[in-house]
Amino acid sequence: MIKVINAHLFVSTATFLIALSFLFSEKLSGVIDPISLTLYRFVFASVILSPVIFLQEKYRSKIKQSFKKKL
Prior knowledge:
The protein is mainly alpha-helical. The chain is built from 3 helices and no strands. It has 2 domains: 31 residues; 40 residues, no CATH class. Helix content is 89%, strand content 0%. The mean pLDDT is 85.
């Protein structure tokens, strides 16, 4: 039961964040160039997610494997 509640909480949070993204994009579209806004989103997401990826071994190993496949 707790897994179901957690799943609903995660989906609701993701929906809320996406909705906020649209609202902020609408407000900032007249001020900031759309390409720059996309770059800021990417950089912000990279900064937020990089500690999660680099601090957990299982994710670091997946990064190493993906680089080996591409090279």
